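Changelog-linked ticket: iron/sulfur cluster example.
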Amino acid sequence: MPDDYNIDDQVLTTRLSTMIKWAEQQHAKLKHSVDGLITADNIVGNTVTAVERWAQRNSVFPALFGLACCAIEMMAAGGSHFDISRFGSEVFRASPRQADLMIVAGRVSWKMAPVLRQIYDQMAEPKWVIAMGACASSGGVFNNYAIVQGVDRIVPVDVYVPGCPPRPELLLNGIFLLQEKIGRGESARETALAAAAGAAV
Ligand code: SF4
């Protein structure tokens, strides 16, 4: 055995090289993660998404779709007293192709249901639905064969506004809730589509 052989030095050297190797691996992993998070693409992509959602949530254009007494309250929300235009939704469109929000204001008969669905299908993407009032949300007092017991049987609903009829302030509140959902990137339609795709697998 050579004189300069020292078992403690050997062990120390081996441990040090192992530690250096481990530190280098961790450094490489960390760098990879940070690079993935902070690439120019991600920053631009996230900013564009944020701007897109900001624009969408502040310019929700409802389709004209009043069905019964609740529609009067919806019209009042567009008047000067409640002034829905303060929140970017004053542009009620007569064409579904220029609208991205369906406010179902009133009871829906089964005879009307296919028409409602067709209008919904013709609306621009992305699109959202507010069920305004007890009738649209659940059939209300009309628990009979002629009335759809909740419009969510026909289209995916994002926000339910309670009341019979709900006052215009409640509809405005429903729009605020919808704007929050849009800001978070949520949509009942997307959820329904994802669920359908999952069920089909
Ligand atoms: S919820 Fe009341 S006000 Fe609205 S459509 Fe039904 S009955 Fe009319």
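Closing comment: Example verified and attached. The chain has a mean pLDDT of 87. Residues 61 and 99 are 5 Å apart (CA to CA).
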